[in-house]
Amino acid sequence: MENTVIITTSWDDGHVYDLRIAELLEKYQLQGTFYVPIRNSENSVMKPTSMIEIGKRFEIGGHTVNHKYLQNLGDEEASYEILNCKSVLENILEKEIYAFCFPGGKFSNRDVHLVKKNGFLFGRTTRFFNTTLNNKFLMNTTVQCYNHDTYTLNKHCLKRAYFSQLIKFGFFFDYNKNFRKLASEITSNMILNGGIFHIWGHSWEIDKFGLWYELEETFKMLSDIPNALHLNNSTSWKLKKSFADIQKK
User: Fold this and answer.
1) What angle (nearest 5°) sits at the alpha carbon of residue 15, between those of residues 223 and 37?
2) What CA–CA distance (Å, rounded) separates 183 from 188?
3) For residue 136, what pLDDT is reported?
4) CB atoms < 10 A from the CB of 179, how many?
5) Which residues 6+ apart lie within 8 Å of 150 measured at CB?
6) For every residue of 10-48, which 3-state class applies, written as one string?
7) Closest CA to 106 of 97, 98, 115
8) Beta-bridge partners for 35
């Protein structure tokens, strides 16, 4: 189990283009979790019928009621955003949801506590370059489907003290400009040692910047990794946590 490669994907904001993401995931037999707010003043949110359609094949997770950054809210409003997004989505889907993603990747310790208190299994962040589950409640990611510039990647690594990643990826032009090449490089290194490869993005952003071809090529590459497990976020979390608990005994 320790050398197993787990592939998981996640998609934020519940945009109508998520339906296209779902089609591509199905085409390449990949799994994913779609984090859906009930409303979003910045972008349109898919209709409940589309949520149900995606929810039949993939996991749906909570993303607050109004896509608000929780750390900017008072206790009562933050609790409302977290609890009510869960209850509304569960009423639409007619099943329990376990995964939560912090809008904008913004959160405080209080918000982590509220997400846990309101029945979610974990809170997904936007921290990338992670291939392990090293936190008891926060689920980090590996690569974002966006071609970040050198400054952004280096700043992220320095902020998180990811010095090995900074040395390996931060100064190499071939990798820091293209998420597909970065994904290929990271997964190639994981084949021997195992771990969780977690790619995430926004479907509206992929469309806005014309990244559909790169996304499909990335999906094709991920689907060809030998003996990899393709799981949604919650199943990945449960499996790795179960293995970690066994190791402690």
Assistant:
1) 110
2) 8
3) 86
4) 22
5) 170, 171, 173, 176, 177
6) EEECCCCCHHHHHHHHHHCCCCCEEEECCCCCCCCCCCH
7) 115
8) 12, 61
d(CA 209, CA 207): 6
Q: Can you give the pTM of this predicted structure?
A: 0.93
Domain range 5-248, CATH class = alpha beta
Residues near 246 by beta carbon (within 8 Å), at least 6 away in sequence: none
Contact 139, 124 (CB under 8 A): yes
Residue with tokens 């639409």: 92
Other beta carbons within 10 Å of 133: 21
Structure tokens at 7: 């592939």
Task: Determine the residue type at 59.
Answer: E
* pLDDT value of position 246: 40
Q: Are 143 and 174 in contact (CB under 8 A)?
A: no
